[in-house]
Amino acid sequence: GDVTVHRCIIDNLDEGVYEYQVGTEGCVSDNYSFEIKEFNESQPMRILWTTDQQSWTKREYDVWQMCARFLNAKQQSLEEPFDFHLNTGDISQNANRRFEWSYYFDYAKDITRNIPHVITCGNNDLVDKKYSTAFNYYLTAQNQKWNSVYAFDLGFVHFVCLNSNEDQVYSGDGKEFANTNAFLEAQAQWLDEHLTEVEARPIQPRWVIVFAHLGPFTVGRTKRLQRWIAPIEKHKVDMFL
């Protein structure tokens, strides 16, 4: 069936708790709330990190439902709840099948309606395992360079997301880049330039964290990502997730 996606970016909110509804007149959600925080020396940042909920059937996604219920109960019991939910990709098994995204977000709703949801495009989140077009339906990102390549600040931390996929939205005949290697090399160059700009800020972040679906610091399937290591080491990135 048809689905309506509502998008809204609001800047410069003051610290505090806000309420919101989603929908159109005569068809709106319940009231939900979120909190805008100001992080400082005495305010630690708490990140809920999940990944790879990909499944073929509803029954398999029901495992994610159990996990999400547990995580939401955990969130409710914490004296200091999670500040945001980071998902490093493969929300779907095949991005063509919209029901997979629906199951993911339906089961995650008790988490995502109250805290920011930060996502990464995995290789299985590519339409036909090739194109990252579906990713933009489910993310509203500022400071985005390419699909799943973006950066943001939160408190004293600067986060950067990279696209580790063989993404044919950008690479191939007639595309912006001749092949996957050229696309990944362009990301490495962008990362170098971007972190150079960050280092030139009058007030620099205490931590720089880079994240992607696959990483260069692991044993499997990441030979093509080794080109990212040079800018990561040059700028002394604190953590790669």
Quote the beta fraction: 15-25%
Q: How far apart lie the N and C ends?
A: 36 Å
Sheet/helix structural class: alpha/beta
Principal-axes geometry comes out as globular
Question: What can you tell me about this protein's structure?
Answer:
- This protein has 4 helices and 12 strands; from the N terminus they run E-E-E-E-E-H-E-H-E-E-E-E-H-E-H-E.
- It has helices at about 60-75, 100-110, 180-200, 230-235; strands at about 15-20, 25, 25-30, 30-35, 45-50, 85, 115-120, 145, 150-155, 155-160, 205-210, 240.
- The strands form 4 sheets. Strands 8-9-10-11-12 form a 5-stranded mixed beta sheet, with no helix packed on it. The chain has a 3-stranded parallel beta sheet with strand order 5-6-7, with no helix packed on it. A two-stranded antiparallel sheet has the order 1-4.
- It is globular.
- It starts with 15 loop residues before the first strand and ends with a strand.
- The mean pLDDT is about 90.
Layout of secondary structure:
Blueprint: E1 16-20, E2 23-24, E3 27-28, E4 32-36, E5 47-50, H1 58-77, E6 84-87, H2 98-112, E7 117-119, E8 144-146, E9 149-154, E10 157-161, H3 180-199, E11 207-211, H4 229-234, E12 239-240
Parallel strand pairs: 5-6, 6-7, 10-11, 11-12
Antiparallel strand pairs: 1-4, 2-3, 8-9, 9-10
Helix pairs in contact: 1-2
